[in-house]
Structure formats: structure tokens, C-alpha cells
């Protein structure tokens, strides 16, 4: 994507670092427009999606949508099992299509993440999934 000078200046004004402590996977939390993101990569993607939304390319941008992969249940031994959820980074719709898009920004794909994505794709085949 080509950034205009005005967009770059706005990005510099709103993009700030929230703390210096690194996480397990060496990312640092970033704050944009009062929203704290888990990494700079996720914050940058948010800014790109906001520009696309302002230009009319996408609509209904939602942050941190949750999807139930398996409902809670009680097994035959009486043990309770909590539901399994997947929380994506972004969900939006593209103009001119009726397809919802779910997007996740990852620097490192853990085994749990890989498993949840398989479950997500099996349960929600009508939703386009994008990894970035």
C-alpha cells in the first residue's frame, strides 16, 4: 500500500509505545488512538485497515472478535469442560461481497494457534481467514 504524506504524519502522531517490557515472543505492546495492541505489527495492520475503511474498500471493522470452536460440556464421568474460543485480531467485510473476513496478525505460530485455526476453518468455512 502506498501511504500519502498526510497518512504518514497521522500515523506518527497516533502511534505510540506502551511500555518497554518484551513478551515471550519478543513483541512490544503498542498504543494507537487509545487502543493497545499486542505488537507493532498488529498496530500497523490496524492503521492500514482503518485507511481502507475510510476509503470505502472495507466496512464493519471489528477488533478482537470471538468465535466459539466448541461449546462447554459435561462428560460421562461428570467432569465439566470449558468452551474453546478463538479470538482473532480483526473482522471486516469487503465492499461488493457478502463474505466476512477474519484476520490474525502473528509473528510466531504456536501449536495451539495452529490447532485453533484448523478448528476455526472447519466450523466456519463461510468466513475467509487471512494470516498476516
Q: Mind explaining what this structure looks like?
A:
This protein is an alpha+beta fold and 132 residues long. It has one domain (5-131). The protein is built from three helices and eleven strands, in the order αβββαβββββββαβ. The chain has a four-stranded mixed sheet, with helices on one face. The radius of gyration is 17 Å and the shape is globular.
Supply the key terms.
single chain, 132 residues, alpha+beta, 4-stranded mixed beta sheet, 3-stranded antiparallel beta sheet, 3 helices, 11 strands, 30% helix, 32% strand
What is the element layout, followed by pairings?
Elements: H1 5-14, E1 15-17, E2 30-32, E3 35-37, H2 40-55, E4 58-63, E5 66-70, E6 73-74, E7 80-81, E8 84-87, E9 90-94, E10 100-104, H3 111-123, E11 128-131
Overview in brief:
With 132 residues, the protein is of the alpha+beta class. It contains three helices and eleven strands.
Instruction: Give the overall average pLDDT.
Output: 86
Low-confidence stretches: none
Helix content: 25-40%
> How many β strands by DSSP?
11
Shape category: globular
Order of helices and strands: HEEEHEEEEEEEHE
Amino acid at each position: 500500500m502506498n501511504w500519502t504524506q498526510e497518512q504518514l504524519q497521522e500515523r506518527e502522531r497516533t502511534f505510540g509505545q506502551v511500555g518497554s517490557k518484551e513478551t515471550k515472543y519478543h513483541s512490544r505492546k503498542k498504543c494507537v488512538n487509545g487502543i493497545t495492541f499486542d505488537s507493532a505489527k498488529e498496530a500497523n495492520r490496524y492503521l492500514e485497515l482503518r485507511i481502507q475503511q475510510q476509503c470505502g474498500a472495507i466496512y464493519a471493522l471489528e477488533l478482537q472478535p470471538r468465535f466459539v470452536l466448541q461449546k462447554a460440556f459435561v462428560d460421562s464421568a461428570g467432569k465439566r469442560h470449558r468452551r474453546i474460543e478463538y479470538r482473532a485480531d480483526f473482522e471486516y467485510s469487503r465492499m461488493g461481497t457478502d463474505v466476512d473476513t477474519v484476520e490474525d496478525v502473528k509473528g510466531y505460530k504456536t501449536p495451539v494457534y495452529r490447532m485453533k485455526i484448523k478448528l476455526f476453518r472447519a466450523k466456519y468455512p463461510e468466513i475467509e481467514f487471512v494470516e498476516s
